[in-house]
Please model this.
Amino acid sequence: MSFAARLLAWFDVHGRHDLPWQHPRSPYQVWVSEIMLQQTQVQTVIPYFERFMQRFPDIKTLALADQDEVLAHWAGLGYYARGRNLHKAAQIIDTQYGGEFPDEFEAIVALPGIGRSTAGAILSQAFEQRYAILDGNVKRVLTRHAAIEGWPGNKKLETELWQLAEDLTPQTRFADYTQAIMDLGATLCKRTRPGCEECPLKQDCQAFQLGRVAEFPYSKPKKQKPTRQAWFLLLFNSDNQIALIQRPNSGIWGGLYSLPEFDCFDDLSLAGVDLNSLVKWSGIRHTFSHYHLEIKPVYALKAPTVAEPDPCEPYYWLTLDEALKVGLPAPIKTLLQRALK
Ligand code: SF4
Model:
């Protein structure tokens, strides 16, 4: 049996057939449910959907309602832009389509808050048209079934997944097929502890056959953090005191003491040191939440003339013992301990 045939046979027995938006499966009900189901699970949505339908039983009522009242019925579902877009779209349908939900893809996808997958879900479920969907559940099923390597949010991969979703869509029972693949993703092919043993797709599910189910779908790759370099000056006076500055309260290391910092090596001359006499130490790499900092320490022993490059950032002269007692960022403390040795 084909992928779709097995899925539909499973759906006939195990699928969800009593969801409130399935009776009747009208475009309005399907649309509202699809919007509510974005980022939200079926069991959470059901009571919201029922209350919403009681108050706004049709597109006209929704279009004429006050936005505050629509949002009050949305309260608790989160992602309020969904509620605002739903209201706006109802007004467009009311004025442009005489209150009749459009049945063409281009018209539906042009409505606020409706993307390709939601449009596909509405067309297949409410109008029995052959359209695929690709929501999070379906992406999980397809990436596992075909063991598709890579993050499914990647544009190229997403295009491939859409093609696959379309190829697998059968030639009949479009509404049931859409519901079936959503149900499989939500009830068996779950993110954690999927019920592969009961799955109608297990015989050719690549991830299952390879014992790699937990690896799919790949998670979003972590963004490469940029690296910034900075020169940190260990500047000593003739009394063997080191120059520290206090960091501004806002920003990294806010309020802590640190070493004078320069964006490039040549700027160190602003501190009145002879660049040729500086001793370069091995660096330290420090990672912040949004970037790496390559700390390049330079050591200036008994600088003859000491200038303070920034009057807003006066130097505090402390012995190393004293300096190690004030609040210091970890890598700066490491440098001072190194200097002490
Ligand atoms: S066999 Fe497991 S991993 Fe594969 S589609 Fe079914 S539930 Fe998902």
About this structure: The mean pLDDT is 92.
